[in-house]
């Protein structure tokens, strides 16, 4: 963890000092792939785990890794070790900590299927603890860390011995699928909205006739309507205006409320 005002928070039991005298908002950032910062910036404290939190170690069928390790790296290393279970995560551009927070998932797999336990630090920096998967309130794109704001520092994954060539084949197959189905040539935060129960956000948006709709440089992807992409020079305000337009139109047409999966921080 780097110092700054975040360091002050952790050392002083969460009583953060800011120039304005206000208690600043504290946000933990992983790889930043699912965070949108509003155009007015963020004047709180950002905590980002440093390189010490990227170690990956194997113990039989378990891997223990620092929360800043990238999912792509952990998945590749698991494959190298002949351990199956992380293939689904190879193309998700996040860190292990961010993936636990989000209960990230793809192609039928979710973090909740592979996490055995995590080490975390309480939001006020006063307590380091170990928690097992059953205590983490995992649900669709949700974990207890979205409720308590604690910091995941280390994750232990329970994987299964498998055939290395078969694991690598599956990862390649999923990567090709991702490359053809997702608009990866433009910056985005992935699927912008959570999947409403019983529906797919992308399908609802497409059915509402919104594929390709633009506000400034922000566009509902032509390739996958669940993505809002930056086709060039999009401001956060373009993205938020487009998000609201999509939410209002889908609500009018289908009665379904789309909720952002992306975490929005900062001020206009
Ligand atoms: C092209 C693209 C494709 C994507 N595909 C998928 C997909 O298939 N499936 C999927 O689920 N997601 C997908 N995503 C979204 C995103 O990559 C994942 O949710 C990822 O797990 C977020 O990890 P991150 O490290 O980038 O988190 P960040 O974006 O940095 O943070 C996300 C949230 O996690 C919290 N957080 C981060 N690190 C920690 C920590 N150590 N402790 C506690 N809280 C923490 C943050 O405070 C924030 O609330 C995609 C995104 C993109 C851009």
Give a quick summary of the entry:
29% of the residues lie in helices and 24% in strands. By secondary structure, it is α+β, with helices and mostly antiparallel strands.
Would you spell out the secondary-structure blueprint of this structure?
Elements: H1 4-11, E1 26-29, E2 35-37, E3 45-48, E4 56-59, E5 62-66, H2 71-80, E6 83-84, H3 96-102, E7 105-106, E8 109-110, H4 111-114, E9 115-121, E10 128-132, H5 145-148, E11 151-158, E12 160-161, H6 164-181, E13 188-191, H7 201-207, E14 214-215, E15 218-220, E16 227-230, H8 236-254, E17 263-265
Parallel strand pairs: 1-3, 2-17
Antiparallel strand pairs: 4-5, 5-11, 6-12, 7-8, 9-10, 9-11, 13-16, 14-15, 15-16
The structure holds flavin-adenine dinucleotide.
Descriptive account of the structure:
It is built from eight helices and 17 strands. Helices cover 29% and strands 24% of the residues. The protein has three domains: 4-48, no CATH class; 52-178, Uridine Diphospho-n-acetylenolpyruvylglucosamine Reductase, domain 3 (2-Layer Sandwich); 183-265, UDP-N-acetylenolpyruvoylglucosamine reductase, C-terminal domain (Uridine Diphospho-n-acetylenolpyruvylglucosamine Reductase, domain 1, Alpha-Beta Complex). Residues 1-15 have low confidence and may be disordered. The chain starts with a helix and ends with a strand. The strands form six sheets. A five-stranded antiparallel β-sheet has the order 4-5-11-9-10. It has a four-stranded antiparallel β-sheet with strand order 13-16-15-14. It has a two-stranded parallel sheet with strand order 1-3. The structure holds flavin-adenine dinucleotide (FAD). Residues 27-35, 49, 67, 92-95, 97-99, 101-102, 104-106, 145, 151-152, 182, 184, 188-190, 263 line the site of flavin-adenine dinucleotide.
């Amino acid at each position: 963890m780097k110092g700054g005002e975040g360091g002050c928070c952790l050392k002083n039991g969460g009583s953060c000092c800011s120039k304005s005298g206000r208690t600043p908002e504290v946000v933990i950032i992983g790889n930043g792939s699912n965070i949108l910062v509003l155009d007015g910036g963020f004047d709180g404290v950002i905590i980002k785990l440093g390189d010490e939190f990227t170690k990956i170690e194997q113990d039989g069928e378990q891997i223990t890794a620092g929360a800043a390790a990238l999912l792509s790296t952990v998945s590749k290393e698991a494959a190298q070790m002949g351990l199956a279970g992380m293939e689904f995560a190879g193309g998700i551009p996040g860190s292990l900590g961010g993936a636990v927070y989000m209960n990230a998932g793809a192609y039928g797999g979710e973090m909740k299927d592979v996490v055995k336990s995590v080490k975390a630090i309480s939001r006020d920096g006063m307590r380091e603890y170990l928690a097992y998967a059953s205590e983490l309130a995992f649900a669709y794109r949700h974990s207890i860390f979205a409720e308590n704001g604690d910091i995941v520092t280390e994750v232990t994954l329970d994987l299964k011995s498998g055939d290395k060539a078969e694991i690598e084949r599956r990862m390649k197959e999923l990567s090709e699928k991702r490359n053809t189905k997702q608009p990866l040539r433009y910056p985005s935060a992935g699927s912008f909205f959570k999947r409403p129960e019983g529906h797919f956000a992308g399908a609802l948006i497409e059915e509402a006739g919104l594929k390709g709709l633009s506000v400034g440089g922000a566009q509902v992807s032509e390739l996958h309507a669940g993505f809002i992409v930056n086709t060039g020079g999009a401001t956060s305000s373009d993205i938020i205006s487009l998000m609201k337009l999509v939410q209002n139109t889908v609500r009018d047409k289908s009665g379904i409320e789309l909720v952002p999966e992306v975490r929005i921080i900062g001020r206009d």
